[in-house]
């Protein structure tokens, strides 16, 4: 069993698509009209057949209070692995991305948290275990 699809609720799908592709660097996988909304997914360009992220419309009445509580408590709605949190932080900050947590080392993991402009906090992370695996797998 593996994760095929996960989602984040977004206020505006077109705005979210631009942010997740133009800023974060994902690529659009599916864009299927469903009335006023779309089945809109993005994937990592490094793994185009991998896990899809659904940019899900936030119209359900439970979504607003749920997301507001997560943001108020500083809890990310999603977490993405990066090769170097500090380098990605600098790249994204130069593009105008607002961070609610600058890079922070907590044991073997470095994280930072950003505002996705669509109602969510998103964490970027890298662990020393990832780093050791990458070194081990390099010829």
UniProtKB/TrEMBL annotation:
Matching entries from PROSITE patterns are given as:
VOC (PS51819)
Domain (VOC): residue spans on this chain: 2-127
- Domain of life (superkingdom): Bacteria
| InterPro entries assigned to the protein according to its UniProt record, in alphabetical order | Glyas_Bleomycin-R_OHBP_Dase, Glyas_Fos-R_dOase_dom, VOC_core
One Pfam family cited in the UniProt record for this chain: Glyoxalase
Q: Can you say what this protein is called? A: VOC family protein
Name the species this protein comes from: Streptomyces galbus
């Amino acid at each position: 069993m593996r994760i095929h699809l996960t989602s984040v609720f977004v206020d505006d799908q077109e705005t979210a698509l631009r942010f997740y592709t133009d800023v974060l660097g994902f690529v659009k996988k599916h864009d299927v009209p469903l009335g006023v909304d779309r089945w809109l997914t993005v994937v990592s360009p490094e793994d185009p057949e991998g896990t899809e992220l659904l940019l899900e419309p936030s119209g359900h009445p439970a979504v607003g209070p749920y997301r507001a509580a997560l943001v108020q408590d500083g809890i990310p709605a999603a977490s993405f692995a990066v090769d170097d949190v500090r380098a990605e932080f600098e790249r994204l900050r130069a593009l105008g991305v607002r961070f609610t947590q600058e890079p922070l080392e907590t044991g073997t993991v470095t994280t930072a948290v950003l505002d996705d402009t669509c109602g969510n906090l998103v964490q970027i992370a890298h662990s020393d275990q990832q780093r050791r695996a990458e070194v081990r797998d390099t010829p």
